[in-house]
Design a protein that fits this description.
76 residues, 4 helices, 51% helix
């Protein structure tokens, strides 16, 4: 079995805010990522800019915790 034969790994894509997640370049990027990787989960962190993990650490950690719990539940 090769890596390509395995189920795609889940991915969380962090976006800076609702506006860029739904319009403009960020929407294009998130849409393409979701199309390419069916397991992509998009997490929007309000009022954040480039350093999402610094601007919204509680939101990022909350999303990461939920993501890891989901992955653990899938036996990964």
């Amino acid at each position: 079995m090769t890596d390509r034969d395995e189920a795609p790994a889940p991915v969380t894509l962090f976006c800076t805010d609702t506006a860029t997640a739904t319009t403009g370049d960020a929407a294009t990027v998130t849409d393409r990522m979701a199309e390419r990787h069916g397991t992509t989960r998009i997490a929007v962190v309000p009022e954040s800019v480039h350093d999402v993990h610094l601007d919204g650490p509680a939101a990022v950690y909350g999303e990461m915790t939920a993501f890891l719990a989901e992955v653990a539940g899938q036996g990964r």
